[in-house]
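Reviewer 2 asked us to include a model.

Predict the structure of this chain.
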Amino acid sequence: MHRRRRTRIIATLGPASNSFEMIEKLSNAGADVFRINMSHGTYQEASKLYSTVREVEKKTGRPIGILADMQGPKLRVGVFKNDKELLETGQQFILDMDETPGSSKRVNLPHSEIYQVVQPNTELLINDGKIRLNIEKVTATKITTTVVIGGEISDRKGVNVPSAILPLAALTEKDKKDLVFSLDLGVDWVALSFVQRPEDVQEAIDIVKGRAAIMSKIEKPSAVHEIDSIIALSDGIMVARGDMGVELPMEQVPAKQKKIIRHARRAGIPVVVATQMLESMITEAVPTRAEVSDVANAVFDGADAIMLSAESAAGNYPEEAVTTMNRIALTVEGEPSYLRQLAKDELPPEATTADAISAAAKQVATTIEANAIVTYTGSGSTALRAARSRPETPLLVLSPNISTARRLALVWGLNCVYSQDAVNFQDMIDKACNICHEYGYAAVNDRIVIMAGMPFGTPGKTNVLRISRVLDYHVNI
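Predicted model (structure tokens):
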């Protein structure tokens, strides 16, 4: 019923995966969290996806997280008289505020914010960086450029401005409406696109008010530069390698990915690696060897979760893509080198009771060869600290809050069970032993390690570490 795999899988829902049958298949194949992309579809379609996931959750008995991904600002050129044009390398090309359909010489760029911040001798990128323009001159309504890398340009292609921090908020008016809708729906996570600075996260915090966890997508160079400040305000981080690979030289992306994972892990918040992980599986039943290595490296780096986008949303093989990702992660985690890497990357505990108990639980579980570490948590903070220590022993989380269990479904190694809180010390032991036995983590006479807080039901009060043996009387309560 619960995963032996520590690294979590996020699958994006879409036309290829919007039925109960397919979502159930994806869940059984290994998807722990489902992503609803607010860039596409209607509110009615998003609501139906949400309800269907909850139906699947009820059938499987496993808490499932739902992430709503905000679109963010979309910077695009206007339209062309002939729908598309060919730009030659070395030619002059102008972007301006004139809404007249474009030609091979010019096109509308209806974003005054860009004109305010770009400088001569910097670049504009169009169509995911396939066309590169060097800026020669800037006025309030016109940007004159030289084409560095030419090619075909067509209506409404995206524009990237890697060298500047744009005076744009991460949340557009559409995003604010989508955010309120998503919160009312009951999603567990919201992902923010186009985060450039900590203030972008704070704006979302002021709207969300704790109703969902906030995941900041790192895709802008400015966000990488302020990563620790952004992490401090975020509940999770996503390495969004799509725009990052456009705005940064692509050879820098792997190192940036490792840096972001390292910083998020140090802070004890979950980190997701996303974009083009198994891209070829949109049309092919088998991934490339390079894609397998890419997924494996994210697992080796200690990412909490790895994400499928179009592969599961619109591809021909959604179930196979999840199955493949699951198989890769399981194989990597079974390698001795993976466990050695976890030990090498072990993070020192911070000077808090929760970290002291988590570090002790990890050490005790290893020493006595316990079958599981059981963590009681209401808010999820104790479980997050336990996951931060990356123990080899399986982690079982018992929470009386279903919303907490769903949010934690995205976190490395946490197997969440929605359960009533313990009422006294003996009940704490009995529940932990009984659920460990029920879910196959421990047999009779096996030992488990329990982390909890007293008085029970008090958030942030992890102060108990208990070693217990699963006995016959526990099994039958």
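The chain has a mean pLDDT of 94. Residues 84-160 form a domain with the M1 Pyruvate Kinase; Domain 3 fold (CATH 2.40.33.10). We have added this to the supplementary material.
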